[in-house]
Amino acid sequence: MFKKLSDKFQYNAPVILTFSLLALCSLVLSYITGGWTNRYLFSVYRTKFYSPMQWLRTFSYVLGHANYNHFISNFTVILLVGPMLEEKYGSKPLLKMMAVTAFVTGMIQVLFFPHVALLGASGIAFMLILLSSFANFRRGKIPITLILVAMIYLSGEIISGISNPHDNISQMGHIVGGICGTLFGWAITKPKADPAA
User: Fold this and answer.
1) How far apart are CA 26 and CA 61, in angstroms?
2) Are the C-beta atoms of residues 127 and 55 closer than 8 Å to each other?
3) How do residues 44-67 score in pLDDT, each as one tens digit?
4) Which of 40, 45, 104, 140 has the least CB density, counted as fewest CB within 10 Å?
């Protein structure tokens, strides 16, 4: 019976689906432990740079979420956009982009906001949103979708960060994720150098 069920379902986006399941497990663990796992495993903040946990949390914080609403707001976007991008660019490249985005955002948090903990996959979500605007990119042209997405999402985050700096939402994480997505998009789609030149 299990084989019949497995024949009907396709694990179509292994990186995105595994990431989503790990984050869901992290959320459940946080509820079970009264938030202990979020505080010590799934949040990034400055401790000691020689501590292995400091470096582990620089990646693992993207699995942690404050509550179910926080989880849903990130993974609705990730599960909608991620599988298309994984199919287009491949699982390994997408995993690398996610890891780089997590690391860059985590390090900025540790270096510039040492006394504030950051958790959640919103930086990854914003990276995927901006990266998706390159999906139908034609070489030598600037996609209008990129301009619109950047204006809507990133300007909104900047305005929100200025107008309400104490809302417990990391606009920095969103902006850095968006910048990472834009840079990855340009890097992937830029014309190759002419070998004859």
Assistant:
1) 10
2) no
3) 998 888 889 999 999 999 999 999
4) 140
* Topology adopted by domain 12-189: Rhomboid-like fold (1.20.1540)
* Single-letter code of the amino acid located at 121: A
Quote the pLDDT of residue 35: 93
Tell me how long the chain is: 197
pLDDT reported for residue 171: 73
Residues in a beta bridge with 118? 44
Task: Tell me which DSSP letter residue 62 carries.
Answer: G
Share of the chain above pLDDT 70, in %: 79
Domain ranges for the chain, please list them: 12-189
- Burial class for 185, CB neighbours closer than 10 Å (0-12, 13-18, 19+): buried
pLDDT beyond 80 at 84 = yes
User: Do 176 and 104 touch, CB atoms closer than 8 A?
Assistant: yes
Rounded to whole angstroms, the maximal C-alpha distance in the chain is 62
